[in-house]
Amino acid sequence: MPDGFSHYDWMELLGFTWKIASEGYEYAAENYPPSFEGKALKAIAEDDDPRPLKQLVRDHEQALESWQEQIGWEQVDQLWTAHMREEKERRERHLLWALHPGGDWDGGAYSAAYESREQALEGIKQQNELAAAYAHFVPFRGRVLHRSEPGGDWTEVPLEPSP
User: Is residue 163 part of a domain?
Assistant: First the structure.
């Protein structure tokens, strides 16, 4: 990885270049700007002048392509999936309630997070309503998770049966 890039920032730049390839630069920059964690890179991404971000992409385009070819597309896909999970967990770090769908689901610690227990229970209710209406949905059979502070460890809490 080039100097100045954390692994997280490198993956953000990679995802941004994929969006540019599929959506065009202007649309990607407006709707999917990279969320860098490094101070200098963050300043570039948040600058109202689009030229520094365009230059950053141009400066690292070849390095990104070489890196992807070097590690292989399967590894790139695994790293991207892990990055998306981390990004989701960072974005939802403040939420204290979550649902895990149960079984062998490997999509991270939880599938959906909420601000309150009531919202989590509403999520279960909506899942069950979808399962009743559509054959390809299944009723909620997972676990309710709670943490006492933002970013804390999840613990399973009992799900009281509906009256």
Answer: no
**Residue bearing the bigger pLDDT, 128 or 3:** 128
pLDDT digits (tens, 9 = 90+) for 106-132: 666 788 899 999 999 999 999 999 999
**Overall average pLDDT of the 140-162 stretch:** 87
How are strands ordered across the β-sheet holding 97-100?
Answer: 112-114, 97-100, 143-146, 155-157
Per the listing, tokens 């002048």 go with 49
Residue 102, domain extent:
97-157
14 and 77: one domain? yes
The conformational region for residue 102 under phi > 0 = left, psi -120 to 50 = alpha, else beta, is left
- 143 in Cβ contact with 99 (< 8 Å): yes
Provide the whole-model pTM.
0.69
Cα dihedral 69, 72, 76, 79 sign? negative
Name the amino acid, one letter, at 85.
R
C-alpha span between 39 and 49 (Å, rounded): 17
Tell me which H or E stretch contains 86.
helix 73-91
Distance CA 66, CA 29 (A): 23
Tens-place pLDDT, residues 34-66 = 999 999 999 999 999 999 999 999 999 999 999
